[in-house]
Amino acid sequence: MPETIIVAIGVGVLILVALVIAILSRYRKCPSDKVLVIYGKVGSEKNGQARSAKCIHGGAAFIFPVLQSFQYLDLTPISINVDLKNALSKQNIRIDVPSRFTVGISTEPGIMQNAAERLLGLRMNEIQELAKDIIFGQLRLVVATMDIEEINTDRDKFLLAVSNNVEIELKKIGLRLINVNVTDINDESGYIDALGKEAAAKAINDAKKSVAEKERDGEIGRANALRDQRIQVSAANALAIKGENDAKIEVAQSEANRREKEAEALKLATAAEAVQEAKAKEEAYIAQREAEQTRAELERATQQADVIVKAQIAKEQAQIAADAEAEVMRRKAKGEADAIFAKMEAQANGAKEILQKQAEGLREIVNAAGGNADDAVKLIVSDKLEELMRIQVDAIKNIKIDKVTVWDSGASDGKSSTANFISGLMKSVPPLGEVFKQAGMDLPAFLGTPADDESKETEEKAE
Question: Which domains does the chain have, with CATH numbers?
Fold first, then answer.
């Protein structure tokens, strides 16, 4: 009994330890560089709607078995190289804006929830491609709303606009913008280079102007000193007036030089603007021409599709109909041929059956005659004798004689002319022996001898 109690206590302790280990294995701590996302049955929000996930950063939580599961979102920053080319600015001039963006999973509560709903389970390169698409679109949008002068000179304004637009869109998928670095801005038309040259020329002109003004001030000072000296020495108002006039002339000359330099600078700037405007128009004309060519090719392809495809469809339909009609005719002809063959085969089988039955009947007749063929023919002729006599009589039965005139003068053989006429009429019917000869047979002896044989016998007796 004590041993049983000890065993039960040991089993209970093991079960308790296993239960504690299972509970501790479901308690998950979130590292500082990750976001713990718990999904499953995680409660509901204030408005009563079920929550899709629960996000924890820098803490720990217990994962209920069966009801809940978890995954981690990596907070490692993602560097994205965005090489934007041919972006259309507000002035319709295309520029290249190579830049690099650094983004990462946001740790703000609402933004983390977006990341859990939209980025959980995606690999790092997939998140990078998704963010890259968003950045490309927003960067093009910002470039389209600004002039090239603003983008080139006021980089802070440009970066601020890019950061605001991009970060708003990135927050929708749970990301935040860490850093933006625009390396350089170029354009194919050379407008930015022209602006740089214009700025350099203006700076040089300003420097020359400043030097001229300083030299002018020096000359004026020296002239004033000379004037004062002369005034003091000669005390002559004429010399003072002359000095003033000289000073005014120098001022006018300096002003003329300044205006000349400004005119030259303005001429250069105007020429640069005209060149850029001409290039812009040329690019617009080229783009319009390419658009017209593309439209013409599309229209030609549409026409080909409408005409050629319909013709091909009609051709295939006609071919299918012809094949179907030919197949019907072939099957009909085959059916008629089979019917004719079956009919001919049935007729042949019937004729064969009749001949076989006749042969069996003839064989029975020969057997009945004791195997003698002549006796068998006698039996057949005897059976058909009545019918043969009827045929002989029917040959003259229907002869119509309208009128017969007989001059009976008697005869030497004791027969009258009328008797001879009737006898001759009967002899006009082919004798039965002739009928048998035409059939390639001889008249049986028991039916009498043919007329030729009788004449021969008569001649032999006469001899």
Answer: 2-72 (no CATH), 76-188 (3.30.479.30), 381-398+409-462 (no CATH)
